[in-house]
Amino acid sequence: MAESVIVAKNLYKIYDLGETKVRALNGVDLDVPQGCLCAIFGTSGSGKSTLLNMLAGLEKPTKGNVTIAKGRIDQMNESQLAVFRQKHIGFIFQSYNLMQNMTALENVALPLTFQGVPKEERKIRAAKMLKMVGLGKHMEHRPGQLSGGQQQRVGIARALVVKPEIIFADEPTGNLDSATTLEVMAMMQKLTREKGQTIVMVTHDNSIASYADMIVKLIDGKIVSTEYRAVPVQAQTVIDSETADSEGKI
Amino acid sequence: MRLGDLFRMSISSLFKRKVRTILTILGVVIGTISIVVMVSLGIGLKSAMLDEMSTFADLTKVQVQQNSFWGDSSSDKDKEEKRLDDALVEELSHLEHVEQVCPTVQTSALLKFGKYICYMDLTGMTNEEIARKNFELSRGTLPNSRDELQILMGNMVLAQFYSEKDYSMPYYEKGEALDVDLMQDSVYLILDQDAYYGYATNPDGSTIHAKKYPLNCVGMMAGGLDEFKNEYSWQAICNIDALKSALQKVYKGRVIPGQPVDKKGKPYKEFFYNNINVYVDDMNNVSEVQTVIQNMGYQCYAEGEWIQSSLRELNLIEVVLGGIGAVSLIVAAIGIANTMMMSIYERTKEIGVMKVLGCRIRDIQMMFLLEAGLIGFFGGVVGLGISYGASKLINTLVAGSDMGYSYISVIPFWLTLAGLVFSTLIGMMAGFFPSRRAMKLSPLAAIRNE
Known about the structure:
heterodimer; A: alpha/beta; Rossmann fold; B: 12 helices
């Protein structure tokens, strides 16, 4: 088995609501190998989102430690985390979270802007990413002019542009119809196969989880099962006009 | 992040909310106008007043006066008498900040034309000092001969003539000046007034008859008969050396009025000056030079002194005016802070996304500081532009009115610069706490789906 890039040990997150204490995570141990598409699966309130936030360093655990790409992110402060995220982590959101006043190209280039990459280089790298996700003809479009699936592909390109080791995805297909969901899932599978990138995604949908190599099932803040699939369900892409036009075919 | 990118992002988010940005900038514009115009009025009033004052007072002059000779017997006799002589002139001219040292001799003289006479002061000055005064002449030239007693007549002297017989004054009683041309007609100049009235005697007891010299008036100062233009308007001016030799000739062997005497009441051989005018390179060094001269043991006096104190009052007015202006800029600053706060609340999610995508928190703070600073800067630029217009308008109105000033608003370069820096700084200060808030926002806001 490949080297572990995500190791969480004895993770607790307890929300103090005054009178009651809510245990969102109740002792979670997790080990994700490199190049793995990992799905954290659970119902609403199971603590799956909390786990993702903690792995991505967006929230601090009450107890326990998280090691990502050899970095102890539970011990980092805000500015160290920002630098760490710049270098190692990409993020895909459920509601895309694209900047509405920027073009697709500018949105993809945004993480590079934060890194201080010069403008010309940013443009070249962002354009390459957009072509790879099949949006070569939509670079100058703003999010409002794109469909949901296209917007999510812009979001994926934005997560990939910094060449991160790990990509976190929070319900990446939650706002998409079934056809585009397949497209997105196929793209994610390909990334792990061909580029060796590790993807951790959160979902409440069993069928989405089934595309993953590793399915972690969470109930009430505890991992109840971890299932490894040597041959996961292959996401069959419906070839539509959007992907067919792309130069970088997936 | 690169500075250029920070600027670009700040400007684009200002553009995104145009109306709000313009309204906030408007607040700064008004604040800048009020502070700049107020201060410009303070500066302008001061400078206009200074211009006005310097027409009748020389602000860089320190006047060294002779100590009183008459009452000095009571003071300790060991102390050397301080006299204004050529040695002192030489000494003063070597002091720091001193540009020119000009001794003067003053005497009183009588003009006689037929039955009319007129008293006036006659001041002997060096040619350099006469040139320095920039007298405006209506006719003739400046006196410059060191031998011949050439006179420059003040414009108000003619009004002072009165009849020796009935003491009537033609100008003040009839409104008509005596019909005499001081430069052409045969007017006489009498220096020895005691002799003229028959009080003066020779050592042997015989009466001295006053000598009458034909007046050699070479120039007339410009101005009406009751137009006080400067302290010399009702005096006459001549060359100091010419006056000195004239006095020595007239008072041969006797005490020249105004000259010191020894204990026996006899005159000294040397000729002493009544005043020495010391011209200083800059108005601000006047009091320093004054102190040095006083420490040398001389009495001195500077016309600039009281002007300095009234300038201090004007400085206070300037500060008060600036303070009033600053209030509105502070109100504008609160406006900026409010706008930034609103903007941060609206952009909570956007800020969260930026953080998740790896934007450093310093950069986020910088972005908001820049935004606030840019509002201040643009407000400052527009406000200064309008201030220049307002200043021009005020000056045109003032010049057209009968206030006596030709301008009262001045915007010097430093005020422009200070206005710009101040408004930008106020903007950044107003944006500081909102930017801290943006910095501290949780990246989790990006994850929440509304």
